[in-house]
């Protein structure tokens, strides 16, 4: 067949209107279901079917063209394959021989590779044995060399008499370091076990010489000897031995002399004096070692040592724990706070004696430092403070609404103790930075307890008021027939009522106490954030706390809780004052009785009840002017006057309605009798006198409202009363009967 068989098969092109791509059929990932689903998103199934039929016709046409094009090849295909079987059989035998030859070569190569690998393994073993043998030779040579330098034989015991000089020690240390390396590599071999006693003898002699030279250098302050000894210790990887030697021979005698209970008792500065003495140790005994190991100005620095952290600190902590454990006792919180503060100040100064920040970090991570910090029973200290602060505040709540001590700017004993308790948490002799979170929580708990206490008072008073109202309703609803019961039952009932009233009615809270509570609650809320900025924020910043706004939000919530009951208490004050003042409004209903069929003169003065209407309010303001703020006074007065105006309007409206009904009834009666209504008679009717009296009283009420500093026109109740006045004037049949009645427009107070 003509054509290149390697050329990829391409499908014939179709119309551009087809809803699919013809190349999708040639993809290896072609799937019928996926293909149909993709096409359905674009066209209906009918369209897809039609397009597929169109393309099928195109494919058939293309196939026919292809067959026609290569028709001769298709016809001659069977002819071209004649003799192909014989040709294939002729190739089979040569290919079999070639395969056998390849297998022989492969086998020979595998045998050669195995032989080479075996030789290489043998060679590696020989090399390892030679290295091991060389290591053992090096060990023996090093041991003999060191023994020769030290003047030892393998039969001698470790010498403890003579010490080596500095240069010889350094030579021995260098060789000893090599010996340790060789021994580590040859560990477990029999020869190493044989020379271990000799190595131990060398180690003892070397350490004895090093210790002697090191202590001699410390005694004489010989920098060269100390540097050489420290370098040697570092060379043989015995840094901890040098630090332990310094701790044992230098730090321990000093600390055992200073850190004692006797020193605490005899020193006029007590614990502080002991710490001062301890702090003198580093500059006095460690300055040379500190210079050599950190910032030497004359010679190389010997790295890897930290005598302050690894020698001095453990000895200090060990002696404090063992010899002066009394400083950790938390029983007396004031004494504990003093000792803890002094100890933390000592530790801060001790950190300053470290040579670098890295040394400070090592100190804080040292186990002795952790032990020292954990010995302070801070949770116990806080629990004692909690009982002391919260207990005193809780006891003050039990006293109820007693007055605060003289000289306090609070009015109630509980409020005074609340603020004292909050401030006490941040006193320098109470607060500890490590207990910051606990004191913050205690502050919030105190404010929460104060809020709940105020709420409890309100709930109790509210319950008492409800019980009183229920008792009044029960007494009012008791039928009169019960009074005719037997004397025995009556006496029993009276005794039972007396017991009930005695048990249910405790001493009620006064309006003055409520005002004191409101004033204290507002004063407490006003002080919270100044106290936060002054006392709490600096302490939070000093310990590196970042989310200060979260703490502030918590105090903001506490402030809201403290004030949440203030409006309720203020409303109860307003209701009580309204109730006291409104008692006099009952006399409004008696005005018609004073003028009907009494032949009284036209009223020119206010009624007697108006003089007592505002008396409870004025007395309240006069008695509590020291407690009441001007804003609260105005708020209470405005609401009381508004409530009174509403009740006054109701009472007056009822009277005028009654008068109107009576007047209409009389007119109908006269009309029925055939008697005309007289309109020309001089003087006022009784109904007009009643209206006139009410008008005078209402105008007097408006004047009293303005005397409190309010515009009567701005109060809804006063506006209603004014409208009622106008209605009464319009309803009067003879508003100006005589000249004497003109004075009614200017009300005079009742005598």
Structure description:
This protein is an all-alpha fold. Among the domains are: 22-80, no CATH class; 381-473 and 508-564, Orthogonal Bundle (Tetracycline Repressor, domain 2), CATH 1.10.357; 579-672 and 682-745, no CATH class. Helices cover 72% and strands 0% of the residues. It has 28 helices and no strands. Helix 4 (84-150) packs across helix 6 (190-220), helix 16 (378-398) packs parallel to helix 18 (436-477) and helix 18 (436-477) packs parallel to helix 21. The longest helix has 67 residues, at 84-150. The chain starts with 31 loop residues before the first helix and ends in a 20-residue tail after the last helix. The model is unreliable at 1-6, 158-162, 480-505, 677-681 and 737-751 (pLDDT under 50). InterPro entries: COG2, COG_complex_COG2_C, COG_su2_N. This is Conserved oligomeric Golgi complex subunit 2. Residues 465-505, 732-751 are annotated as: Disordered.
H/I helix tally:
28
Query: Looking at the structure, what is the overall shape?
Result: flat
Count of β-strands: 0
Assembly form of the protein: single chain
Order of helices and strands: HHHHHHHHHHHHHHHHHHHHHHHHHHHH
User: Which whole number gives the mean pLDDT?
Assistant: 83
């Amino acid at each position: 067949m003509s054509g290149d068989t390697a050329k990829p098969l391409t499908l014939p092109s179709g119309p551009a209107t087809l809803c699919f791509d013809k190349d999708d059929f040639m993809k290896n990932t072609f799937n019928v279901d996926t293909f149909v689903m993709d096409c359905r998103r674009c066209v209906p199934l009918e369209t897809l079917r039609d397009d597929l039929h169109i393309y099928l016709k195109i494919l058939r046409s293309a196939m026919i063209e292809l067959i026609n094009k290569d028709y001769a090849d298709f016809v001659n295909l069977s002819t071209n394959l004649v003799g192909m079987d014989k040709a294939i059989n002729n190739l089979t035998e040569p290919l079999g021989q070639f395969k056998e030859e390849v297998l022989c070569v492969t086998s020979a190569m595998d045998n050669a590779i195995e032989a080479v690998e075996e030789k290489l393994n043998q060679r590696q073993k020989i090399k390892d044995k030679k290295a091991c043998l060389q290591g053992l030779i090096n060990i023996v040579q090093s041991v003999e060399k060191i023994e020769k330098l030290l003047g030892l034989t393998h039969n001698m015991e470790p010498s403890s008499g003579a010490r080596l000089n500095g240069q010889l020690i350094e030579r021995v240390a260098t060789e000893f370091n090599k010996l340790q390396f060789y021994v580590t590599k040859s560990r477990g071999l029999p020869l190493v076990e044989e020379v271990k006693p000799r190595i131990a003898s060398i180690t003892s002699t070397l350490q004895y010489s090093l210790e002697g030279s090191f202590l001699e250098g410390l005694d004489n302050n010989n920098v060269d000897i100390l540097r050489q000894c420290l370098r040697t210790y570092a060379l043989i990887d015995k840094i901890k031995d040098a630090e332990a030697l310094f701790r044992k021979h230098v730090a321990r005698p000093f600390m055992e002399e200073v850190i004692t209970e006797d020193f605490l008792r005899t020193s006029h500065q007590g614990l502080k004096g002991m710490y001062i003495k301890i702090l003198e140790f580093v500059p006095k005994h460690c300055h040379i070692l500190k210079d050599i190991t950190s910032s030497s100005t004359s010679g190389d620095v010997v790295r890897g040592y930290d005598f302050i952290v690894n020698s001095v600190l453990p000895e200090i902590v060990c002696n404090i724990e063992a010899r002066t454990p009394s400083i950790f006792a938390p029983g007396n919180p004031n004494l504990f706070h003093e000792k803890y503060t002094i100890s933390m100040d000592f530790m801060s100064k001790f950190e300053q004696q470290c040579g670098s920040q890295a040394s400070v970090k090592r100190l804080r991570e040292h186990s002795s430092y952790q032990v020292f910090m954990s010995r302070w029973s801070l949770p116990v200290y806080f629990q004692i403070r909690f009982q002391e602060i919260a207990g005193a505040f809780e006891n003050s709540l039990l006293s109820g609404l007693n007055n605060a001590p003289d000289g306090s700017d609070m009015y109630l004993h509980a409020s005074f103790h609340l603020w004292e308790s909050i401030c006490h948490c941040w006193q320098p002799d109470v607060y500890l930075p490590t207990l910051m979170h606990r004191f913050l929580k205690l502050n919030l708990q105190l404010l929460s307890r104060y809020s709940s206490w105020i709420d409890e008072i309100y709930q109790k008073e509210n319950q008492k008021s409800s019980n009183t109202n229920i008792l009044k309703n029960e007494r009012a609803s008791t039928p009169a027939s019960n009074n005719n019961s037997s004397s025995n039952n009556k006496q029993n009932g009276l005794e039972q009522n007396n017991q009930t009233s005695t048990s249910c009615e405790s001493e009620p809270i006064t309006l003055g106490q409520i005002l004191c509570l409101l004033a204290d609650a507002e004063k407490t809320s006003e002080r919270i954030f100044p106290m936060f900025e002054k006392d709490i924020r600096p302490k939070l910043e000093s310990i590196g706390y970042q989310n200060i706004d979260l703490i502030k939000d918590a105090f903001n919530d506490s402030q809201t809780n403290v004030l949440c009951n203030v409006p309720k208490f203020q409303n109860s004050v307003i209701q009580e004052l309204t109730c006291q003042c409104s008692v006099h409004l009952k006399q409004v209903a008696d005005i018609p009785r004073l003028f009907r069929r009494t032949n009284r003169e036209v009223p020119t003065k206010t009624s007697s009840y108006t003089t007592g209407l505002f008396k409870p309010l004025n007395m309240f303001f006069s008695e509590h002017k020291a407690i009441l703020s001007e804003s609260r006074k105005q708020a209470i007065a405005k609401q009381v006057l508004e409530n009174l105006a509403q009740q006054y309007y109701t009472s007056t409206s009822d009277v005028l309605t009654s008068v109107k009904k009576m007047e209409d009834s009389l007119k109908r009666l006269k009309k029925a009798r055939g008697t005309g209504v007289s309109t020309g008679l001089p003087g006022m009717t009784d109904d007009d006198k009643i209206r006139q009296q009410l008008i005078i009283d209402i105008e007097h009420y408006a004047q009293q409202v303005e005397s409190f500093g309010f515009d009567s026109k701005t109060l809804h109740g006063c506006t209603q009363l004014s409208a009622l006045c106008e209605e009464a004037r319009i309803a009067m049949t003879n508003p100006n009967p005589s000249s004497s009645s003109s004075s009614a427009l200017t009300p005079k107070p009742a005598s």
